[in-house]
Amino acid sequence: MISPQEARKIERFVVDYALGSGHHATTFVTVLDLDPPKILEHRLTYYTREGTLEVTPGQAVGKEMPGTTPAGREVRARETLKCFGCHATQLSAHSVVELDPLLMIPSVTCERCHGPGRAHVEAARRGAGAEDLSMPMGLEGWTVQSQLELCGGCHRHPSRVPPEQLNANDPALARFQPIGLSQSRCFKESEGRLSCVSCHDPHARSSSDPAIYERVCLSCHEMPRKVTTGETGHEMSHLAATSVCPVSPTRGCVACHMPGVDSGQYVLFTDHWIGVRRPAPGM
């Protein structure tokens, strides 16, 4: 039983939102104010792999951060909007710098990537042609770079990391998939064929089955191609295979070249640098 003296020390909060996919972790948030927006990021996060409540990432024990209290971290307007901007489709019907719980569209839905759909719906209802049904960021308008920028808006675009900090051995970068992918040899030598959607269906949950991703690897690394030789660049009639893994040519690609990296506090993220992992100097 809690004594009356202890009961007076208890703080109670309404948990307004739970942020996260649920695959890795779920962080709880209380809205403290709307004008300007301010939230409380609670001190404890639920970690799926361990099935426990532990300290929220960024609020490590002994790490002093502005606005941190025993209950959690008070997050000011700019970061609040950024936080909800990635975990919602729309923050408000009026402005991108306003948080309106009544008009907010939580979670990531179609319009978060494809843009406002009102014109698309109206065109479809009046029987318009295909040219009037197109939407921003539709398949016909994407390039690898524009797709990387779109996904990187939340998953972190490489331009947001100083070049001197781009290090495959930095576990803090493992959670930012576009950074590692864009630095990989596979991406650089794919001639614009490798992108986020090469492996991930943007309309479905990411699969945890390695075989699905390994089929993508093998579709390139087992794919025969024509080679050229000689001063004229004459195309030879025989076929040559692209580079094939000498250790395990038909399976095990993900475990070796995209291992799970512990970014801290019970969360494993798949390494997207797609390379041979070597210990950092001095390790």
Task: Describe this entry's structure for a reader.
The chain has 283 residues and is an alpha+beta fold. The protein has two domains: 13-109, no CATH class; 153-270, no CATH class. Helix content is 27%, strand content 21%. The protein has eleven helices and twelve strands. It has helices at 4-7, 77-87, 110-114, 118-125, 130-133, 144-155, 177-183, 185-188, 196-199, 210-221, 253-257, and strands at residues 17-19, 25-34, 37-47, 52-55, 68-69, 72-75, 88-90, 105-106, 224-229, 234-241, 260-262, 268-270. Strands 1, 2, 3, 4, 5 and 6 form a six-stranded antiparallel beta sheet that branches. The chain has a two-stranded antiparallel sheet with strand order 7-8. Helix 6 (144-155) runs antiparallel to helix 7 (177-183). It is globular, with a radius of gyration of 24 Å. The N and C termini lie far apart (50 Å). The model is unreliable at 226-241 (pLDDT under 50).
In short, what is this structure?
The chain is of the alpha+beta class and 283 residues long. The protein folds into two domains: 97 residues, no CATH class; 118 residues, no CATH class.
Helix content: 25-40%
Average pLDDT confidence is 85
What proportion of the residues form beta strands (DSSP E)? 15-25%
Structural class from helices and strands? alpha+beta
Net shape: globular
Distance from N terminus to C terminus (CA atoms, Å) equals 50 Å
